[in-house]
Amino acid sequence: MPAPAHLDPRLLRAFVTVAEELHFTRAAARLYVAQQALSRDVRRLERELGCELFVRTTRQVTPTADGERLLPYARAVLQAQDDLLAAAGRARPLLVDLNAPGLATPRRVLHRARELAPAHELMARYESGLTGAAGELLAGRLDASFGRFAGLAPALRTGLDQQPVRHEPMAVVLPEDHPLAALAEVPLAALAGETVYAGAGNPRTPEWTDLARSLFEGRGITLAPPAPLAVGEEEFRRIMARTRHPILAVVDFPPLPSTVLRPLVDPVPLSPVSLVWRKGLMHPALDALRRAAAVVAAEEGWLRPPDGGWLPERDIVVMAAR
Fold it and tell me: What is the pTM of this model?
């Protein structure tokens, strides 16, 4: 079969992303497209090239020999396209990490930025935590992320800038038959004696675990030991259903089956969310993203902490830097 005269770069980007993720669901989330659309694009590319690029089973996705051989060429084509567009005065997409699908704060800021700058492409990525994203930011593989800036290691913070976005009230996810599930709000004192999961052992989210450790200290709440690192919502649900530990979360945490989400009170613990980017980054869409963060925060009152809210001192200092 002769090679096609033209290949849509979108198809090549779909192929490269699946080859890097080895998982169609994660690749679709990274490209902010439906999984079915991504699968169609890969199959269309296979038809146009006349070769199979991946072996697909129910458990894994593996590049074929043809896929391995063509991958560096596809990457070179996409890089050449980015270089050409930049040389022509059109900026490449701004790569914005939203931490995880379903988290409302970063998603709302991204959606508003797209409204403010419709001529620019802002593409979502999912790195699970700010520490995991920080290395990608510094390496230039991501442009912006969201999370607890004060929880980053000093060596990471020195290469990054931040803009406070939200004091997000924290919550707890409980099995629906847990004794505390009947409460509309859960006082922190009611968690005394409980073992609560807060991501311990996850190398992408130590800033979250550190915040939980500060919150639990002196309150009789035990930080749950590391659980197997679960990749994807289905695996996370399975591990949590087995351990049955309450999960420390935020009030906009996406729902999980057979659980309830309850706000924490007395005091209201806060999760400090900043927009974070690499120092010196110049991109017109970053300006739109920063404007969007400021606009949404002002509309929603996100930067006004509630009376009696709890936040570590170093986070108070970071969140006051506007």
Answer: 0.70
